[in-house]
User: Fold this.
Amino acid sequence: MMEHPRAGLPIVTLEGVTKRFPGIVANDRVDLDICAGEVHVLLGENGAGKSTLIAMLSGLQQPDGGRILIDGAEVPIRSPSHALSLGIGTVFQHNMLVPTLTVAENLALGGRWWKRPRTAELAARVAEIARPLGIEINLGARVSELSLGEQQQVEIVRALLRDSRLLILDEATSMLTPKGIAELGALMRRLVERGLAVVFITHKLGEAADFGDRISVLKLGRNVGEIPPERLRSLERAALVDEIVAMMFGRQAGDDAVSIPPRAANDDALLEVRNLSVAATPDAPGLDAISFAIGHGEILGIAGIDGNGQKQLAEALAGQRQAVSGSVVLAGQEINGLDVGGRRRQGLRYLTDDRLGEGTVGTFPVSINYFLKEIGEPPLWRSGVERSREIEARARELTRIYDVRTPGVSTPVGRLSGGNIQKVLIARELADGARAVIFNKPTYGLDLANTLATRQRIRDIAGQGLAVLLISTDLEELLSMCHRIAVISQGSLVGTVPNGDGAGERVGRLMIGIAA
Amino acid sequence: MGGFASDTFLAALLFGAVTAAIPLLLAGLGEQMSEKAGVLNIGIEGMMITGAYLGFVSAYYSGSFWLGFLTGAAGGVAVAALMALLCVRIGLNQIVIGIALTLGLEGLTALLHHFQFSRSYPRLPAAEVTPIPLLADIPVLGSALFRHHLIVYLAVAMVVVMIWVYRRTQFGINLQAAGDKPAALDVAGIDVIRTRTAAVLFTGGMAGLGGAYLANVGAGLFIPFITNGAGFLGIVLAMLARGQPVWVLVGALVFGGCLSMTTAAQVAGVNIPTDVIQMLPFLAVMAMLVLFGRRASLPAALGIPYERGAR
Ligand SMILES: Nc1ncnc2c1ncn2[C@@H]1O[C@H](COP(=O)(O)OP(=O)(O)O)[C@@H](O)[C@H]1O
Ligand SMILES: [Mg+2]
Assistant:
């Protein structure tokens, strides 16, 4: 028999599962075995149908065809509570926490209504689960005050609180630090050793290769290939990655080669920040005398573990957050006194990491989202009246130039995939007169193709002589693009490293608190 | 006829303020729960008038105030059940259905009353008063605040109950989740539709009770359209209270005071046109909206029907 008594036994089996939405087949006759004792990685581009598959397993959607078997018997999963009672716990791709409640209240959500939430007991169990994960959870904090990364950590802990037999993580690592991801990997390993089944959805091939026992690839709703455990173990890593990339994109690996854009020898600072400080809030660090300068055509990276002041820095620069002191000089002009709109007009642009919440209005059409910051202004609005034809023509043009894949410019932007929403944002922020651009986690949650396209777009921007501040928690990303990388920790810059040989290691040491 | 400053006048004014505030308090507390759960319950005016009518008829024929309150609350719950079916389960537009229910029930109760009593408006005897020992003997305040029907004290006690429900119970957390992020509640395994239905039924019960009090104790009789916007004032109170039951109480007392002033000024024969005096409560609404309206924060999913898996 097998080494693990329960390993290899399918807990959940999908047979020919099909799900249709208006105008699209999201899942097309998908067969899948989810086995106890295995980390089953589900890979696929944005829109491949991964989340839809998970929605059916967690009772949010009902399949239009096929069947779902639990322990070999057909069980229609009627509702989320039914899924939970079957032992299926899910961390959804889209945040499922109530922003106005505290972390503790969110974790207690789902208790029977007549029972009182037991806070002390909860705290003990959370500590027990969170500590080995290296996660620190502030039970009393309001969720809206946490960073997206911290929220994701809370969701993982919540799923683990519920003693599931099957744990599904839908892109749960997108906001974790490299260390956090490694710890999550180790945790998944421990869980499957206890006989759990884990479904792990990710875009990152490296994670798939590192953590997966079995890898299935979804493409356009179909299961286009599976690498079973025996084969997975026998493959060299490079060969494995090549095989997966071929399955996913039908194209070869290696297009992610490092190509730092060349810079003209012009050292004048275009964007200069001196001693920028922001007051701390109870749940977020402030900024402590941040200083840096970015030249024409330069990409300065900000590396660091999520939640160390990255968002505060971006927002303080963009004028969305009040600074207590310091100055920001753009092209020789002090812009400190200007508000968000004033800074934008001076050419400072900010691409938020919260693409749907803050960056776009999901229910507005793509066309209006392009011009969200010019509403009411000429030439697209005349005396306050919208000039629909001009707007549409301009929107069509931008859609073409920035290669936004959308059914039409009147489609609500919230319906697009993350990569395409990002393109809409980039198109908007780069519009006339951009001089310096701040990117906050520009490739977070994007699939490989869109990640590469976005990175290329950023290189092009720098190539045109703009100053770029690139904030990212993905070190590989920074190393593949930046001229210099500064490391932020607890709200201050702890060092700056010129990119080149050995830069990765030096940045890494700064990130974990060892001087480079 | 006493002057404005006399003790008896002041006591009557305050007594009237409390009497006028109670229906608003009940409606406001009820509406608050619906809104917390994400349902904008515009039908509350219809629930109130139903409670007023059924409460009156039942008290009139049985001679029991308590039976009147019970019937009124039950009537409100029945209307709320219809509203919950249409707006929560089927997901129809809450504003349209709410207005339709209100208009329909105002007409229906007027019609029924006309069939029963033709053009006469029979009165109930004065409601029995439960003085609170000791407190009731305080000069002025005692007779103004502590000599009311038992239901008045119960209504005020509901404020404390609601605070406890929202702060301390699982149900309170569920309600807030249903209003702020229903999908999160759903995936936590709690039925959003049921949670919201419970909230709407509670609103119906409170509104029905408020209506019955307004007719039986406040006025002592039923007249068509007697609620006269009390339910809508309840909506305003709930919105201004930002989820805090205490502020519903404060708001209800302010509005109740204005309503009472209106009556008192007329009784006292103050030389101001009645039309102006009758505008007082609505001026108070506008003043409160101007002062606090901007800070009103409503649940993110308020007014949006929940459908599982939709996006
Ligand atoms: N509730 C829904 N209504 C309509 N279309 C949907 C819905 N959910 C998903 N889709 C569509 O189904 C396809 C698959 O989406 P999804 O499962 O989210 O992909 P993935 O998670 O792999 O990125 C997409 O084209 C998406 O637009
Ligand atoms: Mg997805």
